[in-house]
């Protein structure tokens, strides 16, 4: 069979009964060996990947709709649709389907050959069609029973739909509806309700096209007003004709487009308001109604998009100062709904749609609208801007940067967004939250593009911090001029919390831009003023901002924090919180615990030197005592640099390992079965097993052990120790009798400090650092499996710089001030 290719879009129906676009490609039909039959194949036009491979099943019902759609159910709750670009392509594939199923291509529905009872099979052979009672008032009950009895059987449903479509039966039923209303025949109207509802559940596009035609749709809605379960009929027709008014904000010249808009609105109304909530059995029987509405919306957007005169007039009136407020509100609401309809388009069509709006000048128009006083118009404009920013933020950023070359900062679109966020009058700041979300998308580097010639991130962030950041931080700076917030009402606190949330996002995702801004403008000090707010959520926002900065472990930030003494507001808030166990208490402790765990030395020194007296009594957590211990250990290293050097040697000998050994150990670890290991058994690498226990001793532990020895013992050791050729080192390796200290290398390198003949080796008599044989064992460094020598340390130590002396003086004065 000849392989034909046609351009199609593939759709699947999701759980919410909405059509999801699966991509665009070219469809063909052919025999697939794996599926053992003729199949439909769709390959993506972008990369040739397989979008759809589906066998044409003789038992599957295929429907051809609107000349360019083929819809079918591949499995229960899994509906598929092919939307063809050309009618000819649809007809050709439809012929292939009908050829496989042995059907006439002139029909729009292929017959469903499901297993039915012997009685139905006999009836099918004897009667090719389903005979309906004559359309008379006296037989309405019989017709209603026939429709209801046909719904459970797929075969009878198909026959009923075929008969209803061929004999204008629906139009005759609607004529009876007028008769029943004129005669006030309530029983007959109830029967008509059941009949029309049953026709909806037949789920056939051919019947929908008849029912939703201009001449029939209002009568269909009228029939659905007389629900037998209700004591009084609904008044849907009255609402549609009198209450709901169609407004042409811009005259639509195309009658087909106008009719399609009316039809879509009424069918949507039927689906949402008129039809009763479908049962579990009925829900899947209304999938074609969802499809009808979906493809109608796609068609409306396409027709409007092609009408250049319509769009030109729309944007001209939007931006015209002479347009009255009511008219402009209608125009904006129309544009908002137009953009909402565009969400039904597939990605490439949606891209073309927004590109068309951009070329028409939608962003300058929105800029004009956002500058107006009407809150409803501004709200609708914000919704439209949301569609644009969420779909293509780069387009908005490019417009803003181009605009900055011509206009002042005050009238830039992005500054208008910030001003409306700041000036939101809603007590709950609903609009401000939406606008803050838009700003967050615009300044997010993750969705910024990078090309060979330029980087959008660098350009836009440079622009934003130069032209816009001062507008965003204005309310923060204005409210933090004193030691506590100038205004501390709930609405102001909510606004500042939004500003802080955006600034925190910037700290996390921007690098030097936000760092320079915070340090140069002293932003962190201003933010920490909000720690004194009576609103706990605002104080926590300020603390979160500082915690994010500390989390970066950036020494530029750390120096800024220390020079400005920016832990003071945090410590004050912690002390003022008292013994209350709340979120503020936990958040502050977590911040100090992070500093301790990450061993941020500069901040540890600063906190202990300035604030230890205020924090030393906090004993319900060990965080502050842990900071003090870290501080003391650091001071010990500073006071005794020789010890620090020895530890570095120990550390190097402990951790220097061959890369190949590491790779082999990792491979062995991954090959080890967890079940093979006993409970509690640690995974130890082979090289680690060969190490002596003495090699693993932590140098800090050794130092602490030596420090605990009594001064008298140290003096005794010094008297017994006689180092030939030089004075004893300034620190003592004095261990108790019988204790051996091992300093062994893990690699077989030559000329190690402990190798024979090297300087300082015990094997070199008379060399510096050699130890005579009569040296006491308490002062000797013995070896296990190898020789290790002492290291010659310089006795000279440099004095502190004058700048450090001045800084220490400043710290002491600040410390005294804080303690007082």
UniProtKB/TrEMBL annotation:
Residues 730-747 have a biased composition (Low complexity). GO terms for cellular component: nucleoplasm; protein phosphatase 4 complex. Pfam families: EVH1_PP4R3 (PF22972), PP4R3 (PF04802). SUPFAM superfamilies: ARM repeat (SSF48371), PH domain-like (SSF50729). Residues 142-633 form the Serine/threonine-protein phosphatase 4 regulatory subunit 3-like central domain. Residues 664-681, 793-807 have a biased composition (Acidic residues). Residues 772-781 have a biased composition (Polar residues). Belongs to the SMEK family. This is SMEK homolog 1.
